[in-house]
Amino acid sequence: MLTQAPKGTQDMLPANAYRWQSIEETMRRICALAGYREIRTPMFEHTELFQRGVGDTTDVVQKEMYTFNDKGGRSITLKPEGTAGATRAFIEAHLFAEPMPCKMYYVSCPAFRYEKPQSGRLRQFHQNGVEVFGAKDASVDAEIIALALDVLKANGIENLKLAINSIGCPTCRQAYLEKLKEYLQPKLSGLCKTCQERFSRNPLRILDCKEDGEKLTDAPSMLENLCDECAGHFEKLKQYLEAAGISYEIDSRIVRGLDYYTKTVFEIITETENGPLTVCGGGRYDGLVEELGGPATPGIGFGMGVERMIMVQDAQNAAPKAPALYDAFVVTMGDEARLEGMKLVRELRAAGVRSDLDHAARSMKAQFKYADKVGAARVLVLAGDEMSQGMVKVRDMNGGAEQLVPRDQVVSFVKG
Ligand code: ATP
Ligand code: MG
What we know:
There is one protein chain. This protein is α+β, with helices and mostly antiparallel strands. The two termini are 50 Å apart. Helix 2 (47-55) packs across helix 4 and helix 5 (138-154) crosses helix 8 (228-243). The chain has 14 helices and 16 strands. It is elongated, with a radius of gyration of 27 Å. The protein folds into two domains: 14-169 and 227-315, Bira Bifunctional Protein, Domain 2 (BirA Bifunctional Protein, domain 2); 328-415, Rossmann fold (3-Layer(aba) Sandwich). The structure holds adenosine-5'-triphosphate and magnesium ion.
């Protein structure tokens, strides 16, 4: 127990840090190109925020939240997703008073869900995502979809399929849900236990059940029951996607199941050898700001799973190469050389050269071995006669070539 991480959690170990960092940098770079700025919200919020913001009837709130009372007796929940916290912050900081739209992104945002751990499903995972407030035109729906695809492609991920749907607005959805329930009622006893529970609280979600979805392909479609406004929005979305050169599939089984989603919902799915894997999910939530007590403001966003992106990169051989730890490793012999080595490393680092010297009091031979193991591109030797003559021996660890460089030129030599 003591040395075992809790079930459903993962360490990010130093050797893999560059994977996360590269995914974070990609997200920051692409978001900045489109005028998105970063937001970071607390890791926990009042439980009520998620009950209202994610929705009491959802699986996440009903079964998956990490909820506890703090010492002050408040009910606190570790955030299961990013949208509710960002929306709370948007209202609390009166960001609605600033020029709209308000476009923001987050990177490596931890999310906590008490799920059955399995491949691609953790209890603490991380999301990159965006939220846009104050933009009701479907152009922004297309913008965030394009952005998500750009991010995934820039991370080397291929075989991406975009599936879009509309789940309407409270007006047209209510009438549709009645039709859907009429259709589902006689089939209810043949559905899984979860879906039987969902029937009264969240019937839409039955459509994307992994077990039952296949049996329900002839269910009435939300798309055929949209009101004029929602249907018009969906038409415009398709036009904007086409204008942006983005191909899509319409999948009426994508419902996303959060109470305040309205109109556009989408998922980006990639093929892996273990079958399809959803790497990104998002949608419009035009009712959320108002539901949480702010002025009526449209909103839209997506979240993408960082661990899933890493899984897919591995599966598709798209992982970036690990950068070398050091450009130069300073090998020394004797106390005097170690002091000189300390100075040289300070100079190298000040010049932007990633470098180090031996800190484990190893023999010269062992220092070379170490430098080779950690993949230093060059070794700089401070030892013997060469050192007393003011020279440094520079060895190229890839080719093995050696050359003597005057001590006062060695930093610029290595840099060049
Ligand atoms: P799923 O249908 O796979 O349960 P979801 O609809 O619950 O997904 P979202 O709430 O849309 O997922 O979260 C956005 C993204 O976060 C998902 O597309 C996925 O990449 C990732 N994700 C969701 N749950 C987990 C989890 N338990 N472990 C790892 N990644 C997750
Ligand atoms: Mg889920």
